[in-house]
């Protein structure tokens, strides 16, 4: 991607991954954690900003959500873009979304089902449910229930009160589960996630944080060569880790910009700037407090404030970045 300033955007992408589409569930990060515990790389993306489905993506998981598929304007995604082409697992809301989109019926539960339940029917011939046991404890957290599955969908697990606890689409590796395998209360949830990620998606389980660092640094060296990179730092974990990885690959070819917007904690600007220098990063500190104060003057609406802060940050960063000769990449 090429930005307005002419810089190319520097992506970090692994050789093999699971894509998690987030519909706002409180458990989405837990899904990612369980996948990574299997030594498989994964990325979380918002449901309305689906990345390009490239060959490194081996399967897709649709997360849960606090929303109802019956609501007007409920979160939705064009599943036709990948259903039947890649293994697909819908979790809770994700399962209800699949059922609703393809002709099934999702209705309000008689009572909100929240807590432990047991799978009293499991089709152990299904790849998703291999090595699970009858009566396996799972965690439910939903206000709707799948009353009827679409044509071509078969029920593969049930509890005493939830007939459609899990389903599979005939002839394809598309599954839905009403429970949450990612939480510890689902006692065999890790087994189910392994069945999907390793057994169905075919992921090789060769990713670790160490291999991520090594492969990322090597990829950056190859991609950047002798070019220069500019990067904005926030003082937080994400940008700091990314900057450290890029610096490990190209050293002083990387220039970082840390902006004081006047909204930091007392002494935070000086302390963070000092910590970056101790990390060996080439950092430019920019005191732009007054510029931000001027932009915020008279604003009371929180959203207007947020937009003003974002706009001024981009302007300040762009001004500073364009003072650096020969920059070709944005970190």
Write the layout of secondary structure elements.
Blueprint: E1 8-9, E2 17-22, H1 28-37, E3 42-46, E4 57-62, E5 88-91, H2 93-101, E6 105-122, E7 136-148, E8 153-159, E9 166-169, E10 174-177, H3 189-200, H4 209-224, E11 228-233, H5 237-250, E12 254-260, H6 268-278, E13 283-287, H7 289-296, H8 302-321, E14 327-330
Parallel strand pairs: 1-14, 2-3, 2-4, 4-5, 5-10, 11-12, 11-14, 12-13
Antiparallel strand pairs: 6-7, 6-8, 8-9, 9-10
Helix pairs in contact: 4-5, 7-8
Account of the 3D structure:
The structure is a single chain. The chain has 331 residues and is of the alpha/beta class. The protein has 8 helices and 14 strands. It has helices at 28-37, 93-101, 189-200, 209-224, 237-250, 268-278, 289-296, 302-321, and strands at 8-9, 17-22, 42-46, 57-62, 88-91, 105-122, 136-148, 153-159, 166-169, 174-177, 228-233, 254-260, 283-287, 327-330. It has a 9-stranded mixed beta sheet, with helices on both faces. The chain has a 5-stranded parallel beta sheet with strand order 1-14-11-12-13, sandwiched between helices. Helix 4 (209-224) crosses helix 5 (237-250) and helix 7 (289-296) runs antiparallel to helix 8 (302-321). The protein is elongated and about 65 Å long. The termini are close together. The mean pLDDT is 91.
